[in-house]
Specification:
5-stranded mixed β-sheet, 6 helices, 49 strands
């Protein structure tokens, strides 16, 4: 709550503004302002937006430049923040006091072109394409305020998040998620989908989507890389922001980002706390066909309540040693705890006759703790762009899950069951990385680097079941300790050059993978040690050609070779026990997937419309898929899911990203992705002693449309819609899903505060609906992770008003973060 002094000052500002407005209305006369907008090559910038925001009055006007780059507008005399936004992206601004008719002359937008990428002064558009990545500025998206990162990723072009939190890129789930360019404890030990639900979208600056990564990036992730860049402070002096939100269903959070910067030092700290209690549901219908009698049907209706408290902080500093050297250090700590109550109601039918009914309640207490620290050094040589970067980091994560599971029979035969399940996981990660960049000539650049990722996971899982005497006995089928070590060391080099309208980037990366897996209870308690060691070479190439001097029409071709390594949970041979009718079992014999990816893109600006159509093709060998089949356990039919290598996969598609400015108050952004797929392969299952054909092909698509409106009283309104079509493979048929979100945002308190209201999934249609089928059975799933979410969010900025933010580029830790992407 504001104190009296702040409130009086706020009322004073309002009164002063009203008096100014009255005076201007009575005595003000509009004057004409004109000018010409050009790029650094003295070429006119047509259809660029020119915005005049009054700093001492309420005037707000926006016009567009003509084909020759000229513009003209009539405004009231006063002091203005003038913002120039070209269609191709990149914003610059200037503050001018206008007292009479004035010609601003030629305004030049400074561009620095390196290998086809454009770095512009000032704020950039919400979405832009660079030479080897696509960038989405999440901090400029009003609809994600107060949301989790899992929810907010649904706004990023090419990215979709399923109803259970599974992230995919262009329809592929075979991706790698990075934080500030590296593997991080923030993405969890084994479940990235759950970890992203614990990160606030307000803490994210931008998301980089790398569909066809160059040699500087890790080769893992056959479907591509999603790199999440967290916010860092950059302004001189003391500044920061405070963010508070509250939502329905119950959700509340408070976060603070504070920064103090001098010419020699930059300090930042960002504590946060978040509490939420979402509800979800999952419903199964399993039908088993019989030629001897009526079909057997089992239904499972479940409700899940997840109550979580997350708190943590990030802190760090940078020290500028002279003009050439920067030393940086940072640390993040996070702790989350909660109670998950999962209730499953079972009904068993013979035909239409109900003969069995039971309820299973799983009450799980879980605690997650992680800490991560990094130390970096950057040296800039005399020539611009000539630099050396070094970073080392380490992280430790610990997750404890303890479940009390009770099942009671309400109808039919069977004994009551009481089980205790525990799962203790630990993870340690260490990173060493060094990168050297040497530019020469007009546009050439040579890069050389090393990266070492060293990871250790320990997973200790046990289930104890109550016997007839009331004692808990260890169940060896669901008990194991798995030690997993993975060391990946890489060397890379790449060379790029720009010659007139033609530019290219060629690279080669070598990665050695050493994997060790020890299962304590495998082979009837004798233990099993499974080790792999393999080396692969990963070439990459990007070629870009510009058709015109203004670079409004470009064509780009890229190629890369990728690898998808099985993660530790998929290799661990034990089974989970959260639902004894549907269990998951790892496969220690999994091989990595090798993918060759090709992409052709065209960039064009037509008037006020920017279009980026792309064609892509991927061919993968030893593709991994989750194989699901029925099995008999203790006289009951259960389903077991297990990852297997299932032959080759071919994936191809076309994507269109478009944005256009219909009017000064309406901007539209769209993304359409059409893709086809074909799988060839089979799998021999020892449990059922039969071979399953896993071949299949199909076609699917998804689309996203975002409308941004400027309403009266300077209210920003966003309406966002998403649709994903169905998809079918050899074992399942996924049904369509769609979602509609909206957001309202209004700056208050003289620009120091922003109040926003957003509603996600307003029709509650974001549900995962899948029909699984196989010999003798069908199984239908309907799952909803959470329902409609309405959030009210307030942001207060300290010494960093929105209008001042536009004119400053992120520096400091942000720049170092980009160096970590190699």
């Amino acid at each position: 709550m504001l104190n009296l002094h702040v409130f009086l000052q706020y009322m004073k500002n309002i009164t002063t503004g009203l008096l100014l407005l009255i005076c201007i209305s009575l005595f003000g006369q509009e004057v004409k302002v004109s000018g010409i907008l050009q790029d650094s090559d003295n070429l006119p910038m047509a259809y660029a937006a020119v915005t005049f925001e009054g700093l001492d009055n309420t005037e707000f006007k926006q016009v567009y430049t003509e084909g020759d780059g000229s513009f003209e507008v009539e405004i009231l005399p006063g002091k203005y923040d003038i913002i120039f936004q070209p269609v191709a992206g990149g914003i610059t601004e200037r503050v001018e006091t206008i007292t009479a008719a004035r010609n601003l002359g030629v305004i030049v937008i400074s561009n620095t072109v390196q290998l086809g990428a454009t770095t512009a002064v000032g704020e950039r558009p919400l979405y832009r394409l660079e030479l080897d990545k696509r960038v989405y500025d999440m901090e400029r998206d009003p609809s994600v305020r107060g949301a989790t990162l899992s929810d907010a990723l649904n706004n990023v072009p090419s990215v979709t998040v399923d109803g259970d939190g599974t992230v995919s890129l262009r329809g592929s789930e075979n991706i790698t998620v990075l934080i500030d360019g590296k593997q991080s404890a923030m993405t969890g030990i084994t479940n990235v989908a759950d970890a992203l639900k614990n990160i606030q979208a307000d803490a994210v600056q931008r998301v980089e989507v790398i569909t066809n990564p160059s040699a500087r990036y890790d080769a893992s992730g056959s479907g591509g890389i999603i790199n999440i860049i967290m916010k860092r402070g950059s302004n001189q002096g003391f500044n920061g922001s405070i963010n508070a939100n509250i939502g329905v269903p119950l959700q509340t959070g408070l976060s603070t980002s504070l920064n103090y910067r001098t010419q020699k030092w930059n300090f930042f700290v960002s504590p946060y706390i978040r509490y939420d209690k979402p509800r979800g549901s999952s419903n199964y219908t399993n039908r088993f066909f019989s030629s001897m009698g009526p079909d057997t049907i089992e239904t499972q209706n479940g409700e899940r309540i997840r109550e979580r408290l997350n708190l943590g902080t990030g802190l760090g500093f940078e020290h500028y040693i002279g003009e050439k050297n920067t030393l940086s250090a940072s640390m993040s700590m996070r702790r989350s705890s909660g109670e998950n109550v999962n209730t499953l109601n079972y009904h068993n039918y013979a035909g239409s006759t109900l003969y069995g009914r039971s309820v299973r309640v799983d009450t799980e207490d879980d605690t997650n703790r992680d800490i991560e620290a990094s130390l970096g050094f950057k040296h800039a040589f005399n020539k611009e762009g000539h630099e050396f970067n070094f970073i080392s980091s380490g992280s430790y994560s610990h997750e404890d899950e303890i479940s009390d599971i009770y099942e009671r029979v309400l109808l039919g035969s069977g004994l009551e069951k009481s089980d205790l399940a525990s799962n203790y996981e630990q993870q340690r990660r260490y990173l060493l990385q060094a990168d050297y960049v040497f530019p020469h000539g007009e546009g050439a650049r040579f890069e050389l680097g090393y990266k070492g990722n060293f990871e250790t996971n320990v997973n200790d899982f046990a289930v104890r079941q109550m016997n007839l005497d009331g004692n808990y006995i260890l169940n060896p089928l669901f008990t194991d300790r798995v030690d997993f070590d993975q060391d990946i060391q890489a060397l890379y080099s790449q060379y790029g050059n720009k010659m007139g309208k033609f530019s290219y980037l060629l690279g080669l990366r070598m990665e050695n993978s050493a994997i060790r897996l020890l299962s304590a209870n495998a082979n009837e308690g004798r233990g099993d040690y499974n080790s792999r060691n393999y080396t692969h070479f990963f070439p990459s190439a990007t070629v870009n050609y510009t058709f015109d001097e203004a670079e409004r029409n470009q064509v780009q071709f890229s190629y890369s070779k990728r690898i998808r390594r099985p993660w530790s949970r998929w290799l661990s041979p034990f089974s989970n026990f959260s639902d004894d009718r549907n269990t998951f079992r790892g496969n220690p014999e999994l091989n990595p997937v090798i993918t060759n990816a090709f992409e052709l893109s065209y960039l064009t600006q037509i008037g006020k419309t920017s279009l980026t159509p792309s064609l892509y093709y991927q061919k993968s060998t030893d593709d991994m898929t989750v194989f699901r089949r029925p099995a008999n356990y203790n006289g009951n039919t259960i389903f077991i899911s297990q990852p297997v290598n299932a032959g080759d996969e071919m994936r191809y598609g076309a994507e269109l990203v478009a944005s256009t400015q219909f009017a000064s108050w309406w901007r539209l952004f769209g993304n359409l992705n059409l893709y086809g797929y074909e799988n060839t392969g089979s799998y021999y299952d020892e449990l059922s002693n039969r071979t399953y054909d896993l071949s299949g092909k199909g076609f699917s698509w998804f689309a996203r449309l975002t409308n941004n409106f400027k309403l009266p009283s300077n209210i920003d309104f966003q309406l966002n819609g998403f649709y994903r079509a169905g998809q079918e493979n050899a074992q399942s048929k996924r049904k369509p899903m769609y979602m509609v979100n909206l957001a309202l945002s209004k700056d208050i308190m003289g620009g120091d505060g922003t109040l926003s209201l957003n509603a996600r999934d307003i029709f509650e249609t974001m549900r995962r609906r899948v029909e699984n089928f196989g010999p003798g059975y069908t199984s239908d799933l309907d799952m909803q992770w959470r329902g409609r979410q309405i959030t009210l969010n307030f942001t207060y900025r300290i010494n960093q008003q929105k209008k001042r933010d536009r004119g400053e580029r992120g520096q400091g830790m942000e720049e170092n973060g980009e160096g970590q992407e190699f």
